[in-house]
Task: structure prediction
Amino acid sequence: MEYIDIIKKMPRIHCARGPEICGKCREYMKDISFSLIRVYLEPQQEARPITEIYVGCRKIVGEYDILKRFDSDKEAKEYAIKYGTDITFE
Ligand SMILES: [Zn+2]
Result:
C-alpha cells in the first residue's frame, strides 16, 4: 500500500464523525499542532479523516492517520531534519 509520511499542522482528531456532528471533535479542532501524518494514496476500508497535502507541485487528497504529535514547532523541525521527513508550513 502506498503512502506518504509528512509533518503538517493538524487539529487533534477525535473520531471519524467530524466536527459537524460530534461535539468532542469540535473541541479537539481548536488544539492544533505539528503532527506526523501518514497519507494513504489509495482509498482504504476504514473511515478515516481526509486531508490535502502537496508533494512537490502535486496535490494529494487522501485519508490519513496521525502517527505522532509534536509538543513544539522546534521538536517537529528537529524530527523532520533527523528523519528527512517532509514538513509543510501553511
Ligand atoms: Zn468526535
Notes: Residues 14-15, 17, 22, 24-25 surround zinc ion (CB under 6 Å). The longest strand covers residues 58-69. Residues 7 and 36 are 4 Å apart (CA to CA).
